[in-house]
Automatic annotation (TrEMBL):
Residues 10-180 form the Glycosyl transferase domain. It holds the Pfam family Glycos_transf_1. Its EC number is 2.4.-.-. It comes from the Bacteria. The keyword Methyltransferase does not apply. Transmembrane segments: none annotated. Keywords: Glycosyltransferase, Transferase. This is Glycosyltransferase. One of its GO terms (molecular function) is glycosyltransferase activity. Signal peptide: none annotated. Residues 328-481 form the Glycosyl transferase family domain. SUPFAM superfamilies: UDP-Glycosyltransferase/glycogen phosphorylase (SSF53756). InterPro entries: Glyco_trans_1, Glyco_trans_A_1. The lineage of its organism: Bacteria, Bacillati, Bacillota, Bacilli, Bacillales.
Amino acid sequence: MQKITPIILSNSIDIVRGGLTKAMFTRANTLARKFNKVVILTFSFQQNHKEIIEEIYNKGLLNRNIEVHNMFVDLNSHKERHKKSEVNKSANEKGFIVFKDEKQKTNSSYRYYKNGFYVKYKRFDQQGNVLFIDYMNEGRHRTRREEYNKQGYLVRTRHMDITINKPSIDRYFDNKGKCYATIWIDPKTGKTGRVNVFDKTPKEFKSMESLKKSWVEKKIKKIKTPVIMTDKRDMDKLALKLGHNNLKRVAVVHNNHFKKPFDNTAEIKKNYMTLFDNLNHFDKVVFLTEEQKEDVEHLFGNDNNNLTVIPHPAKHVTHDVRKEVEYNPYKAVTLARYVEQKRLDEAIEAFKFVVEKIPSAEYYIYGFGKKKDNLQQLIKRLRLQDNVKLKEFALDASAIYKSAACSILTSDYEGFGMVLTESLSAGTPVVTYNSKYGPSDIVRDEVDGFVVPKGNKEELANKIVKIMENKDLRKKLSIKALDVKTRFSLEDYTKRWNELISSI
């Protein structure tokens, strides 16, 4: 067998993460047990990339033998500082009148005035480190933002288009305070343009995509057989353009490829067309469910017989639900990002019916995302403040599931629904919409949970009430839920991925 190196392309990885990043971590950890070298290449700028990756290793989310490289870290050629931090870490500054921004609840932020003019805005993290400083002109327009790492060093300056308050030029600074890269940005669209890299041999790239291609090709140049894996569709075009005599390509499809209403009656999402138009140029295309694979085969064919299915494995949880377990029989939970796709508004509206029948019922939603304020307003409007609580993202999903009578999933669409297997692995039944794809493959209706028609909030509520009011039913569903560990076993997942990578 040729020396194979699995390489995952990702914009970024972080501690607070969704299901797709979890899936990448699981695959990387699995492959690292067979292959000598597994690499994750990331492209997004992160102020504190080194600390983030170290925390990921420390928490055991990634094995330390998995290499993580970042494009911006590599472009930064100077690794040591030769001067002290210049940023003022104090909220108060001599010569300025300072006002605290009371609207900011998570981080401390301050406005600075001089001679009557509002001249800058400074935000600190919860540890007192400066996150960024915004500078204003006399018209109160933001002219630039300076971003700092935890050591207090300037790492990026964003120069703003003062008419629409969006970045137009980004400059990146190395560990000696010198600019090592400049990127032009269209402030109206956010799309990047020309890129200049100032190293020993300065280079100019027509686009960020050209820089990414150059960087990846440099990273894989000495690898005998690189297997490039793309998990997000914005990476497919990059993978197709890479040059290497023995390069292999694997695309993994994590989500529904249809536009609204997210079923076979709809058009294909635009960002999937690069993949679907080039199916034969990928050595393997991996789906999470047979249903999605069949849908794609029906639309685009499978001439090279390169489409396959490898579902996510169920997480192993040490837990015997046959014994008495301390859980709240009137509590339901959801772990999800606060985004429109998850339709948490419908879950909350359905829970209004639950509370009407069981006034003490509780619904805890754990996550993060831009729709949090909207959801909080909905909770208030429905007068469910005592029953429905929005919680922060949680790492220990198993403990949360174990605490509840059931979990709820109301997504408009999924690619698999990893939260379903996580809930069942903890012995917690699931009440879910029957959306594409995953719920009907994972949850067995009336065996380990309930699958209801998508959008039927009243039926969803009725099934939740049924579980909460009938402890014997809940126990029966809980025992059957544990079958998920054999139905979606880690052993089978490991075998399939090892065979796939080894055979291409």
